[in-house]
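Entry 14: structure prediction run for Zgc:175280. Input pasted below.
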Amino acid sequence: DSNFCRCLTTLDLVALGVGSTLGAGVYVLSGEVARDVAGPSIVVSFLVAAVASTMAGLCYAEFGARVPRTGSAYLYSYVTVGEVWAFVTGWNLLISYIIGTSSIAKAWSGAFDDLIHNAIANTLGKHTPMDSPGLAPYPDFFAAAIIMLLTGILAIGVKESAIVNAILTTMNAVVLIFIIIAGFIKGDIENWRISKEAILNTEATNFGQGGFFSYGFEGTLAGAATCFYAFVRFDCIATTGEEVKNPQKAIPIGIVASLLICFLAYFGVSASLTLMMPYHLLDSHSPLPVAFEYVGWEPAKFAVAVGSLCALSTSLLGVMFPVSRVLFAMARDGLLFKKLGYMSRRQSPVLATLCSGAVAAVMVLLFDLKALVDMSSIGTIFAYTLVAVCILILRYVQRHMVLALITVIIRKSLTCELLGFFSSVYSTFTFMTSDPCFSKQLSVSSVFLVIALSALLSEAVENLRRREVWSIVLVAVLVLVLLLAVITICRQPQNNAKAAFMVPGVPVLPVVSIFINTYLMVQLEGETWISYAVWMVVGLIIYFGYGVRHSVQKRRLLEAQTPATSLQTHCD
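Run finished. Output tokens:
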């Protein structure tokens, strides 16, 4: 049963996914990466990044088909690996979405302020300065007002929000189509063949070797790692499980279609940009307006301004939409405060929406968000990684056995029957290491081995750039062990439960997704991890102080009148 209104169509989901994913990055990121990292081969970087993002997207698509409920990665973790990991995942998603909301609102305010010659920054900076470390230079009341305006729209109802999002997404798409067509009309293929001598004869320095792969293939891959972040936020589609008419089909189609459309847009814009203007002359902050001035189409920069504001608006809606759904799902399960699960007459999680919007508005008023954006990336990538892990566990562990195992252990621990608890653990271990459960246990062990190897291999790949013998040997050994772990998983029998959509190429595709996500997390700075650790400590305090005692799952187990007496019986 669900209290949500099932009113969204597949087209609404595609618009939501495109709107949230195709943000302002399409107007800025292409210039920055092409100029300093990849050169014209940025089009290949976007292709690699799109393929990597699709791997994560397919994992979400399968869970969306299997579990058509709201909550996204939080819910998928709950039904696969249990309550504690579900809370950790949900807590990661909350910080990711809230910081994302604040940073996008700040970018919206900045883009609009540029059009009016920085009147907002000058006025607020003069009259309300904040010079304390960690705080913003001034309270951005305009950005906070934008957040609260969109919060009000979301609180009214999902259908109204979908209509606003569809209009803004269409306007953004029209501007992007114009940019792509204009770029191919005014572009020159010779800008993809610039010689090294031509670069040396200009004032530009440290801009590669010219040609299509200006910074070598290594630069193209480095650009792909940056471009990967351009495809995040598609997971907002997975939070609509209780609001879409046919979730088993609409969610997979929405995720795959939105990623494909976003790739075409990023590919087309980056190709047009590097054709219109030599990559080493691009502006890293406003590449498209400068490029249009370069080719003599200066008025086109106003179309770019309108498109960027529409893109920021849809991106802001797309990141605000899922945070209220995750918050609602956690409150409904008893892991967060129950009142956050309140539903309005229009079947909208109004209290969760208003609370999340208020927190984001306070953050944009007070804090320097630059230091927090990377922490938002950790939350998103962690969720992607855990969903890929859950796909492996789901496919290679029989569901009834996992449920029986969790039920026995939790019941024993909740009733404080210490001797019985350890007895259950021992009997469970004995059963799982015997036929027919040994292969399933082997599969789970291999999954966690893959995670550990991915972390080690990600760090080793960084050292490989120095071409030292020890680093080459280490990478070779780790790759070999990783392949053996994947082969071990491949040889186990899969769960035979079918769904409307299933990830192809299991276990290879989820394993590659895990490695890519781990590699990206390893690249983040130490200060980011410290901030992230503080956030997780706060979350665990809330969970063990409130969530454990108010968990709906705990209440159900305590109310059960017939405790499990034998794990063997359940598995049979």
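Notes: The two ends are 30 Å apart (CA to CA). Will compare against the previous run tomorrow.
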